[in-house]
Known about the structure:
CATH topology: TIM Barrel
Largest sheet: 8 strands, parallel
Strand content: 5-15%
Radius of gyration: 22 Å
Number of strands: 10
Helix content: 25-40%
Order of helices and strands: EHEHHEHHHEHEHEHHEEEHEHH
Number of domains: 1
CATH architecture: Alpha-Beta Barrel
Amino acid sequence: MPQIKGPAIFLAQFAQDDPPYNTLPAITQWVKDLGYLGVQIPGWDSRFIDLELAANSKQYCDDLQGQTSGLAITEIATHLLGQLVAVSPAFDTLFDGFAPVELRNNPPARTAWAVEQMTRAIKASRNLGLDVLPTFSGALLWQTFYPWPQRPQGLVEMGFAELAKRWQPLLNVADEYGVDLAYEIHPGEDLHDGVTFERFLAATGNHPRVKILYDPSHFVLQQLDYIGYIDVYKEYIRAFHVKDAEFHPSPRSGVYGGYQDWQDRPGRFRSLGDGQVDFKRVFSQLTQAGYASWAVLEWECCIKDSVQGAREGAPFIQSMLIDVPTRAFDDFAGSGTDEAANRHILGIQA
């Protein structure tokens, strides 16, 4: 039985222009001192990685690994880039902020840029010796997730066909370079639960590089069975964000949140251990399912400071890691029977 690796940490929520959070050597030394063994690098943050250089230079990638204070680079995260592969016109203005200034108000150019960046991230992953790339699917249909006004017949099928059409070339590049694309199942994306993942997988012709980044916090906010999800989709889970959440519906607000700020929403993200996710079951279920990659803290909390969240995160994840058994727990009671004895027990004549 494989063993989960960790603890690791996603750097995106901690990056800022002040030291030690503004360079890769400094921020990795900081998280190493907190007890982390790996870092997930945000591929859109030029303070930590130059995707163009990383895609084209193995030497640059070797040098980059030498700047991580001895920590492993677990993955390059590409969520903000993948988001721009598919954007509904309803969200053009909101998502323009993820693109370079010169591409804003130009959706076709923005999409082309995102595809180019994703291609670079795939190649960079290969140069770093990585075989999984976390990302978002983007969304063409999200504004229609609630069926009012009534969706026209064929709209959902057309939306997933178009989403697959946009991702197919990238999936083929990923296949060429031996890299899985792990889509984070996330509200706001067209891939936000099991059914939508299956729709996308089918639309791509069951492409072998379509995989999942599992983050139970998003399932708590949707009131989805996050333990059962592991059982159903275990063969697709290739990345894992360790993030907590809580959901407390009230007479005034529920899953949809009433347009409230994060502190006031019934469903909100929390620091590890402060929410409702049963991480003992999550880690047990993932271990039993054979997940053998990294457990990566993604810290988000509207109450606790990020430094405290990072400091508490490493020992929390460490406490959840399971040393898989080298022998069965009941070996001491084995009777040492053989085939003849088994036949005798069952009453089977030789």
